[in-house]
Amino acid sequence: MWVEQKRSKFACMDEIKRHMQIPETSFFLFGPRGTGKSTFVKSLIGKDTLYIDFLDPETFRAYSAFPETLLKTIDALSPKQVIIDEVQKVPSILDVVHKSMEEKKIRFILTGSGARKLKREGADLLGGRAVYCRMHAFTAGELMSSFSLDKSLQTGLIPVVDRSKDPARTLSSYVDIYLREEIQAEGLVRNLGTFTRFLEIISFSHGAVLNVSNLARECQLGRGMVTGYIDILEDLLLAYRLPVFAKRAKRETASHPKFFLFDNGLYRRLRLRGPLDIESEISGPALEGLVGQHLRAYSDFALPGAMLYYWRTLAGNEVDFVLYGGKTFKAVEVKNTKVIRPKDYNGLVSFGDDYPEAGLILLYMGTVPMKNRNIFVLPVEMFLREPGRYLE
User: Fold this and answer.
1) Closest to 86 (Cα-Cα) out of 121, 124, 62, 59
2) Which of 125, 145, 188, 339 makes a 20 to 30 Å CA pair with 230?
3) Given 1.20.1630.10, 3.40.50.300, 3.30.70.3190, 3.30.565.10, which CATH number is that of 10-134?
């Protein structure tokens, strides 16, 4: 494909501009299926670009059998840039990529849905010569006027789901495809039924402190197997764990991390619901997860060096999210309520007492922004649409 090169920090997916910093050097772009990695990198194709897609069966067979074919193709076309889509399907290609980067001085853009297979097969991960970038689900700032808070709380913001005519049905298919293609086909688990049951149970831990021993008992599995299953979810970028913020801690803090699925829609799809469930038990974690995925995406895009944590003391004081690193130090509490009560400030007040340097933000489902002493109280939708206004 030979078209004019686009030099923007944005790329389009059906006219949706993605907020993504594009390194000038070679880089890996990892992200879950359906988040728009292929669409993004195709917008970077220029007149001197070689594009290779390992989802194409013929291309996959050719390069998996003879990875050195890449050297011959490069010698024939002399590209300045090479894009390899779904690189994890042919781990051995990275040895050839490494050689080409050193000898030919070519820029490589390599996409994948996780590095687990690459690490498992001992692939050369280029020894730090390529930057690691993450592709997230859509954000409110990317969708702009088409963003719907109610819709995102129900079906999430995975691009392939959000852009479909029937998001609920597409979301169900997305989960089934992931189980079949990414987990079963790659042989990541021996018993798909057991793993499916694990997914249903761990969805109840979305937005909660993760206790692996309790989870193992509920799943009726060994602790080691459950830990391995969680690692698989993280390696496939389907979930993440938030560590406890304990820098210069003045109080004894919790030790277990918090657990989140990467997108609210995935949580809604996996979380079984019955007559005894209370809506707030589901909508509360959903709202917290939606804020969390926006904070992760924005910090990757605009807050270099910032890492995401949560804060919890053994006395029970808690703040949902702490962004810390570089020039950023913000504490964000999320309340699934339209009316703020005095006790809703407790976690942020305690955190502010211990860390007076931090900016304090409370998000809620109301519509009126306000300030209570040193705490900014903001409607959650207002914050999601312009996080930079309050985080920088």
Assistant:
1) 59
2) 125
3) 3.40.50.300
